[in-house]
Amino acid sequence: MLNSTGELEFSNEEDPEIISQLTSLALSDGKSSAGAPEKTGYPDSVYVMAANIFQGIRIEKSAQKVLIKYGNEPLRSFSESEDQSFQRLSYELAFSALKYQDILETILIDSCIFPSTTIPDHLSSLIIVMLYDFQDRKFQTRVLSDNEESISEVQEVENLLNSFKIKLAAALARCRIKHDALSIYHILPETVRKQELRASTLPLYAWINTCKISPEEVYNNLKRRGYNKVKSVLHIDDKVFAVDQHCYDVLIFPSHLKNDLINIDLFKDYKLIFQDKSRSLAVHSVKALLNMDDDILMVNTGSWYTVAHMSILTNNNTSKVFVCGVQSQAKDPDLKTLFTKMGCKNIEILRETFINIESKDHRLQKIKVILLLPRCSGLGVSNPVEFILNEHEDTEFLKDHSQGGISVDKLHILAQQQYEQLTHAMKFTKAQAVVYCTCSVCPEENEAVVKKALEFQDLGNKVQPYRLSPPVLPLCSLKEIQLSTDKFFRMEPSEITNGCFLSVLTRERDPSETVSVKDVLARAAAKGLLDGIELGKSSKREKKKKKSKTSLTKAATADNGIQMKIAEFLNRETKASANLSETVTKPPLPQKNTAQVGDSSQTRKHKLAPHPAVPTFMKNTCPSRPRERQTHFMRPRPEDRMVALKPIEIVLPPVFMPFSSPQGIRSWMPTQHLYCHWVAPKALVPTCLPTPSLSRKGEKPKDDTRSSLLRPPRRWL
């Protein structure tokens, strides 16, 4: 029991008018209470849980400055305190008491509660958290529910505070006057006040579990519940939601809808999951770097929801998600149950810490991307309580945020740990990319760590160096483009999002590690993706390719030999044709006609290009021409293929030559039309091939082929 010499003294001296005047001077915040619901206090289990949290994160002072002693024994907790709603209330109460720890201790000393009462040390944390709630309720009596189970320690502390109600209100008023502040809220550092202001408007982010539901189904479900889809949820008090611009599967809700959302089936059935946007940016960056069969290694994930999100995004691939750092086997059943409910099937948990994992571990030979989420100061987070609950960060995270900053020594320790983890990630020879993401805005934890790791990276044999790559996320505003000019992705803390830093390090694949088609098929068959199709021996085409590589010189020599034989054959056929044409007797022709024919053949040479396989007219008049034109038979064929010679049939129309002598006509013209069929070079070749007469110069030739074949030959006069 609490023993106080002043408890009876002040228990009967409560003056409602005095208390009202004092509490009006001791407003707990700078906001107007008009329209706000009146606070009635918390259940006893919330006070106990908040006291235990405060006990672990309180600011310890030197022996000379110690005003109140805190014990080391935690209070007995209750099963209902494990509920998520009770956890959130307890963390919020403990964090608020931590921010005002100095002020609350001063009020307890000034009101003579310490050291006039004999209070056990293990109850000091409970007194602090209950005093904060007492002054926040304007020192009004707590309303208890009928079915609530009371806790003896909470009842004793509450009776003590009620007995010192007037003195506590007076001490609080003097503290406000001393700091010349409208309320104790204005006594806080400016950085903390700005952080609280951002936290009050910070929207809620939730990603869609596409393994269980599609985005369209989520939209329709929300619309049936009265939610409207908008482009921005900022400064909107209605039931609305929006789709994030960076991550297609992330929805945004106004902060005041939290209590309504957590009770709908979408969140109860793990179809929508609350999580900070920085984690969604990290997993989407990894997804953009993956191929179909690449594995991922996640380091310092904090929240298992981040692991689940990565698994959901790679559900259609054959990738595995390795998570390191889970040392307690007691967590296995809970994790397996959680992943089963969320539909995750490709997660494998490693027991070792990341630093102790060898880069040549046989289990990680297919790791291509490493996601590194190192522990950081978190100075970019506006609502640390929500971040703690969603990311399962250490409660030390709250201590750093309660004062609006972090000591230089602790910042250097964190930066060194981040550098060691990043350099260790770069030692994995099979990895091709590292995604480094923090929720801090301190350059010492971000740019400095990445640049130092790139500068001093250890290059092994046949390993390409890492280089800084541009962001793989879309840049949706001019400010984001300006912040990403040096290839880093940054988001500053604002009323719509927490601060975030993201860097992507990539390197080229080792040329010696190129994967053949045969390897890909073998890997797919090993995973049962080919539906029982057996991979036989190498095909004939592959054998021919291998054989051609080894005998490239021989093939070229044989090809040249074949071409030489073709050329010799054509030369022999040309000589035989020329000798046969010389044995045929021809009557003497007049010079005029010869000249005309020569002119005609010259005109033919310029207007009509002769086919190389057809002999030209007037071979005998120009003995040198047949030799020159027969050279066209030696036309080289492409070396990469052999074309088989096939017989062809060419039908030419009759030709009427303008000879003046009838004898010449009879000797040169047959009585019937002459049609030459070109089949193949033979021993006997016709001495002349009738060709169509040429039109006059400047006239277009008429298409008389069809008519000339049907009408009889014209008699020359």
Automatic annotation (TrEMBL):
Top-level division of the source organism's lineage: Eukaryota
Bias type Basic and acidic residues, positions: 696-706
Keywords: Methyltransferase, RNA-binding, S-adenosyl-L-methionine, Transferase
Entry keyword Transferase: yes
Region (Disordered) location: 537-556, 581-607, 692-717
A Pfam family of this chain: NSUN5_fdxn-like
Stretches with biased composition (Basic residues): 538-549
GO biological process: methylation
Gene3D superfamilies: Sun protein, domain 3, Vaccinia Virus protein VP39
Active-site residues from the entry: 439
Biased composition (Polar residues): 591-601
Residue stretches making up the SAM-dependent MTase RsmB/NOP-type domain: 194-508
Record has Methyltransferase as a keyword: yes
Molecular function, one GO term: RNA binding
Similarity comment: Belongs to the class I-like SAM-binding methyltransferase superfamily. RsmB/NOP family.
PANTHER family, per database record: METHYLTRANSFERASE NSUN7-RELATED
Protein name according to UniProt: NOP2/Sun RNA methyltransferase family member 7
